[in-house]
Specification:
Elements: H1 3-12, E1 35-40, H2 49-56, H3 58-72, E2 76-82, H4 86-93, E3 102-107, H5 116-124, E4 139-143, H6 144-156, E5 162-167, E6 175-180, H7 185-191
Parallel strand pairs: 1-2, 1-4, 2-3
Antiparallel strand pairs: 5-6
Helix pairs in contact: 2-4, 3-6
């Protein structure tokens, strides 16, 4: 598969950065990259969705991540993951030997480790200039859910129609759920048993 083909599939299936910024993922598929990074550092301390998704679908996500590295001809593919996520690290360990380009970078639990610029520095030692893009330093960064959505686009022919969400804080039963795009906040909170603090406005 070529860069253009992969980029086209990603664009057609509506895959964008699932970490919050929504940057168009097809624009990241670029042969200037010699390193690709997968962010499993979960910047906010209560979030769990990326480590849970990576643990549950380790084989599919690692395979897709390695494929992306091969297509853009990157030298290495690094999964940045907090060292405390032991069960996810163990799940990855079953499949990493199959993909020589892919390795783990264990990260401390410091805040804001999941920030893209911090992750790049911790994993590669490279510094992104203010206002600069990672590709200018030869790096592409994806988060776990984005890579999983690329897997679904490639192998399941499934466009992005839903989102994985961690619901924590003042709720009765903290939970991670997959919800259709457009689901209201009140509906999501109800999936966690409802709120325990003041009324939602």
């Amino acid at each position: 598969m070529t860069v253009e083909e992969l980029s086209g599939i990603i664009k057609e299936n509506g895959v964008v950065g699932a970490g919050g910024a929504g940057f168009p993922t097809y624009m990241k598929i670029d042969k200037r990259a010699n390193t690709i990074l997968m962010n499993c550092a979960e910047c906010e301390p209560l979030l769990k969705l990326h480590r849970q998704l990576l643990k549950e679908h380790a084989r599919e996500i690692v395979r897709t991540f390695a494929l992306i590295a091969d297509i853009v001809e990157a030298d290495e593919a690094i999964i940045g993951i907090k060292e405390e996520y032991q069960s996810t690290i163990e799940a990855l360990g079953q499949f990493l030997p199959e993909y020589p380009k892919v390795r783990l970078k264990l990260l401390p639990g410091a805040y804001p480790m999941g920030d893209e610029i911090v992750l790049i520095y911790e994993a590669t030692g490279r510094v992104i200039s203010p206002g600069g893009l990672p590709i200018e330093a030869g790096v592409i960064v994806f988060n776990v859910e984005t890579v999983y959505n690329i897997y679904r686009a490639l192998e399941k022919k499934t466009p992005v129609v839903d989102k994985v969400v961690t619901v924590v804080g003042e709720v009765k039963n903290p939970v991670t759920v997959r919800v259709p795009l457009g689901t209201s906040l009140i509906e999501v909170v109800s999936m966690a048993g409802g709120e325990t603090g003041g009324d939602l406005v």
